[in-house]
Sequence to fold (661 residues):
Amino acid sequence: MTLDDILASLFPQGHDVRNYDGVLLGSGSLKNGGRAVVIGIADRTAVGVDEAIRLSRHVLNAMERGGTGPILVLVDSDSQRMSKRDELLGLNEFLAHLAKCLIYADMQGRQTVGLLYGHSAAGAFLATALATRVLVALLGAEPEVMDLPSMSKVTKLSIDVLKEKAKSTPVFAPGLDNLAQTGAVLSTWDEKTSLAEQLQTLLGSDQDGGDRRDRLGKTRRGRPKAADIAERVHDLALQSK
Amino acid sequence: MNARKLEAPDVSRVANSKTASWYEASARQRVRLMLDAGSFQEFIGPEQREQSPHLRVFDLPTQFDDGIVVGRGRIAGTPIFVAAQEGRFMGGAFGEVHGAKLTGLLRAARDTKSVPVLILFDTGGVRLQEANAGELAIAEIMRALIEARMAGVKIVGLIGGRAGCYGGGGLIAGCCSALAVSEQGRISVSGPEVIETNRGVEEFDSRDRALVWRTMGGKHRRLLGGAEAFVDDTIQSFRNITLHLIGSVPGFGLDVLKAEQARLEERLQRFGDCADAMDIWRAKDIFDAEAVPIMSSSDFIDLANRDGDPRYDAR
Amino acid sequence: METLSYRHKAQERAAGSKSLAIIGVVASGNLEVLVERLLPDTECQVDINTAAEGFGAVWEAVVADFVERRSPGGLKLSVNDGGARPDTVALRLAQAVRLIEEEDR
Fold:
């Protein structure tokens, strides 16, 4: 599916999402009559200070205008932009700020939904797709925390050796299956049926706030320890004086 | 045991007093020396042996606490939750267990509402042997952190260790209520080598230490507004600034986010065309910008404060 | 990875009342030692996890020497080793015992 196909399928009643050099901004009509705010990254664009600041502005404008509609985050990005300029200007703050805006919006009742339809990696992944309440993907999406060639360079293990090790664990290698099994991606959407309907179902089903990705990772056996460790520390801390 | 001749690890400079170096201290030493004597209780301490289940595949040794110490204590009588990363174990990187300990602590702070949190960052980012778990941990930490701030909790980040505050650690830092950084501290998303690999040595020579520190180091972050406070490399300094920051930061909400949006937009407008930190410092009319890198901590702190009072309401 | 374990008799009980102490960091050329007061007064045990395989004889000698010098009765010492030299190992074991014998401040 091209981005245009995706937008048409998400918003059969119309949308005004535009692509500004890889930065997606706009909104779309929902089946139930409401309106979704849309932000995103397209064309595998790297997320630097210039991209992040536009995305966060769009979210904050929506919060200012009021409303209860969800915020969709469409993602086909590279990693964060790896340049001197972006780090000089404090990229960590720009990416954190974008994530904060999304998390804040979600906590205020504007359900945030990530739709990964292409690539994403590392810091860009954290500030966009992973800053939503729930993340779904289209088949063929390629999320990646760290690419195997870089891992190979650092670990001094060949890519073949890494691929072999990756057969026994979903915890380090890139790919949709691994990110689903560890709890990052809730589900993969069916491209052949209406994305608008699938979105509607998702928005209707996920009313309970709270981050359950660690529990999902435990159920799916991708992250056997995280949920329990977090819960134990939480309980110990609450009992402490 | 390794019979090759290796440099002996630093055993003589065990930190024993508050004037000891933050940089040289271990995570446990920082916690022990920062907090009131005898006040620290650890959650899931090393005797629980909750180690990483993912390092064996790579024939790597584990650490009993998976490289992070979390617990509760007091500073000058004020109760605090604290998490301290050990930068010398796996570069202080976030793994599944490591990250989950901090996630649980932040969720507890959210539910307790009245106890501030200190995060002693010392991290290269995601632990690549557990990349997916590490990244998810960071995402969950960010969520839990903002939930805690929304509940009124103050969260202070301290940066001055060997590993700096890189990658996802830099994003978590950007979510804190306030940050203090020393000269040794560095904050960045991509590391120097990665920038060089991606953009070439002409743009960024990762072996040029002065360049690395101008771009990502504590002094630049303070002058840029990437950290609220710059401190001397001592346990005492970090302890003092912690109390100051806890008392200075307001609550979190839409106003803070809007103020941050304005702050960051203004930064891009003023400095977006600057090629180097030196250009930014000159654009800020910093007196004797060339001397900044070699200035003593106390001189630099005076200079930074003359430049303008730090804002506490826009992070 | 290699796991080694040595059990020894000790001349006397390690001093102090603390039940637990830890020293060191797992890094190249370094190690951590977790020490717990768990055993009968005249027994001690050293358990080691190490990525450097094939050095059993060296560990055995270092541990035996440590037990002889420090008499760590009642203590179980657990080691995660990052490839440390024998003298560093000896130092950390001694530091661990000193720590658990310290009175709480």
About this structure: Confidence is low (pLDDT under 50) at residues 2-14 of chain B. Chain B is about 40% helix and 15% strand. Chain B touches chain C at residues 1-9, 11, 26, 28, 37-38, 45-47, 49, 56, 59-64, 86, 88-89 (CB under 8 Å).
